[in-house]
Specification:
By secondary structure, the chain is mainly α. The protein folds into 3 domains: 61 residues; 42 residues; 47 residues. Helix content is 66%, strand content 2%. The chain has a two-stranded parallel sheet. The protein is elongated. The termini are far apart.
Length: 167
């Protein structure tokens, strides 16, 4: 006999999920919705209204301190900046994670690293431009394109690719 979908079951699934992955409120809602749809497809019965159950679990998680979009945004921005991500790329990643534009702007404003510094980190990690060991001139256009695709301005990309030595 298939199990029933209850608020307690959703709570347990959410805690297990949050132990493994940092998630936003929207991310947990999406995960719970996917789970319920899969369970119902397998024959489970939802006890009550699905939207009410999900909202109850998300509110309970927020009150308990397991979900904090603001803290998640600050941590994600710091992590992505350490990796050399551009402000544009960070905005896209936060948006996909379900973080509001307002929160992502606020988190980005608190981060001391700028795109001008991050472009050097990204180029070093990807061995682009000045960090390329051989065939630098032959790969110049491709390196510029890679940096621009990563969300950096053409001016910043050209600065890295045309530099004589790293800063």
């Amino acid at each position: 006999m298939p199990r029933k979908v209850t608020e307690q079951r959703l709570w347990n699934v959410s805690l297990f999920y949050l132990r493994r992955f940092p998630a936003s409120v929207a991310g947990v809602r999406r995960m719970l919705d996917r789970r319920i749809r899969r369970w119902v497809k397998d024959g489970a019965e939802v006890v009550g209204d699905q939207a009410v159950l999900i909202t109850g679990v998300v509110e309970r998680l927020s009150r308990a301190g397991y979900l904090d979009d603001e803290k998640l945004a600050v941590n994600k921005v710091a992590s992505l900046r350490r990796g050399g991500a551009s402000a544009r790329a960070i905005g896209v990643k936060l948006s996909r994670a379900g973080i509001s534009r307002e929160l992502s702007r606020k988190a980005a404003a608190e981060e001391p690293t700028t795109d001008a510094e991050a472009v050097w980190t990204w180029a070093r990690r990807k061995r682009l431009g000045v960090f390329r060991t051989s065939g630098r001139e032959a790969r110049r256009e491709k390196d510029l394109a890679a940096l621009v695709r990563a969300g950096f301005s053409f001016r910043q990309a050209r600065e890295v690719v045309d530099a004589v030595e790293p800063p």
